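Q: I'm writing up a methods section and want to include an example of the input and output format. Could you take the sequence below and give the corresponding predicted structure tokens, formatted cleanly so I can copy it straight into the document?
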Amino acid sequence: MSSEKAFFSALKRELKEELGIEVLSAKPYLSTHGKAKDIEFELHLLRVEGFLGEPKPLEAESASFFTLDEALSHPLCEADKKLLKMLR
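A: Here is the clean output for your methods example:
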């Protein structure tokens, strides 16, 4: 399975579990590398271009939407911050 197909499959699964939506289409948008303690990892951001359903929190009490600046004011790992800054 190609990386792009694997990322799409993971995105579909996670958004179905977390928000109850069915992702119809998504494309790679940004990627970066990170390190936490002794673990190196990659973060991939995909842009969802079509979905079915109404997003609602299924595995949390609530969900919130933030501007980039608001999101960056929250405690995040450095790789998440880097990815958000790349969106500017």
